[in-house]
Design a protein that fits this description.
Layout: E1 30-42, E2 47-63, E3 66-79, E4 84-89, E5 92-101, E6 108-118, E7 131-141, E8 146-156, E9 163-173, E10 178-189, E11 193-204
Antiparallel strand pairs: 1-2, 2-3, 3-4, 3-5, 5-6, 6-7, 7-8, 8-9, 9-10, 10-11
């Protein structure tokens, strides 16, 4: 959950929503965020299914306010109209997140995140070029139960004009263990084609170091 909401958020994560958290992990701490993503798309000409499992993000606190990040994932693609299946590894992402603003008497946090995408993946899933993923992450604690976080970003993968990305997550604490969120997000591909999405979900704090 990217939005910090009261006691339930003893662990601040960049998953499961699309909005990256505006905070970094503490110095010397390793945080592992892993999961499964399912994507389905259908048009009059195609019907596709994509599974990412596991998609794993490693976050390590290098110094106060600075973390290093490594992301990789296994992908499975299926064209359900032709039954074509392709499996492989995505390109490796290595990056950092830097805390720009965090004060106890201010309810706003700001961080900047940047990843270098390296063409190390299976040929079917690689961009075959170096690229960058960049986001400015901002969050506000509205009250003890409700927080809001949003990202604005720009990605460039070596061709075209690049993509602008955005997201807005609203998080609400239900109790000391459960929070839920709703989130509109989207992207402007090649600075021309706008795609918009919406999701919702929840987090459950199993114990202080497991969510």
């Amino acid at each position: 959950m990217s939005v910090k909401t009261g006691k339930a958020q003893q662990i601040i994560t960049d998953r499961p929503d699309q909005t990256e958290a505006s905070s970094t992990v503490p110095k010397g701490s390793l945080q592992i965020e892993s999961g499964i993503l399912f994507n389905f798309s259908e048009t009059t000409l195609t019907k596709e299914r994509q599974i990412l499992t596991p998609t794993t993000l490693f976050r390590y606190g290098l110094i106060k306010g600075v973390e290093i990040r490594i992301l990789n994932q296994f992908e499975s693609y299926k064209n359900q109209m032709t039954s074509t299946i392709i499996n492989g590894i995505s390109d490796l992402e290595v990056g950092t997140k830097i805390q720009l603003l965090k004060k106890e008497n201010v309810n706003t946090e700001i961080a900047f995140l940047s990843h270098l995408v390296m063409p190390t993946g299976t040929s079917s899933f690689s961009i075959n070029n170096f690229g960058t993923i960049n986001k400015l992450s901002i969050s506000h604690q509205l009250n003890s139960k409700v927080g809001v976080g949003y990202n604005i970003g720009y990605n460039y993968f070596g061709v075209g004009e690049g993509d602008v990305t955005y997201s807005l997550a609203i998080g609400v604490e239900v109790n000391n263990r459960v929070s839920f969120f709703i989130e509109p997000y989207g992207e402007i591909l090649n600075l021309k084609n706008h795609l918009s999405y919406f999701d919702a979900g929840f987090t459950y704090l199993v114990k202080n170091n497991l969510q």
